[in-house]
Amino acid sequence: GQQLNQSPQSMFIQEGEDVSMNCTSSSIFNTWLWYKQDPGEGPVLLIALYKAGELTSNGRLTAQFGITRKDSFLNISASIPSDVGIYFCAGPIQGAQKLVFGQGTRLTINP
Amino acid sequence: SAVISQKPSRDICQRGTSLTIQCQVDSQVTMMFWYRQQPGQSLTLIATANQGSEATYESGFVIDKFPISRPNLTFSTLTVSNMSPEDSSIYLCSVLGTSGANEQFFGPGTRLTVL
Q1: Other CB atoms closer than 10 Å to residue A74's CB: what's the count?
Q2: pLDDT (tens digit, 0 to 9) for every residue of chain B, 115 residues total?
Q3: B102–A88: do the CB atoms touch at under 8 Å?
Q4: Which residues of B touch A44 (CB under 8 A)?
Q5: Cβ pair B102, A33 in contact under 8 A
């Protein structure tokens, strides 16, 4: 079935640094979604991408829908302590409205 | 996006018992989903809760273990039956957004610990 491979699995950075993570698949996706999960909370949708090549920003977050439709990238600029959490990519399984999730990237920030 | 609440937020249960988790949405939604998130893992879809009909289960999940109800367009329940420690997870409900795209919005989750 369709799977998403997310990397890196974890990141340890200094406050103020930029962050980049990506999500790849052997299958084509028509939508890419990026979520953030804080401890003890449900995932919150950060950015949704619908078109190959699309570049979308949400504050300090920028995500891109890969031109091959098999990958997506999420960048965070000038990280701050509240960026700590787990970031998941997700995409709809072809022909259905249910989502498959990547393994997540755990972001830790040293002040 | 819809406001989604879940009850209970957490529980500690004994082996062999069952727990029913409630998911309430502040608006009518066509599709609701139940996910499991095992410790340190990603989200795995358990089933799609269909209003007026039986839930649609994913491979590896069965109705006897995870019975689901969807009595109306704003409410659903997931029961974790005959629990074992391996059922210790976060259980999340989600709803499909109304934009016509594939965005899903999640509840805060129910953290279940089975002793």
Answers
A1: 24
A2: 789 999 999 999 999 999 999 999 999 998 899 999 999 999 999 999 988 889 999 999 999 999 999 999 999 999 999 999 999 999 999 999 877 678 999 999 999 999 9
A3: no
A4: 106
A5: yes
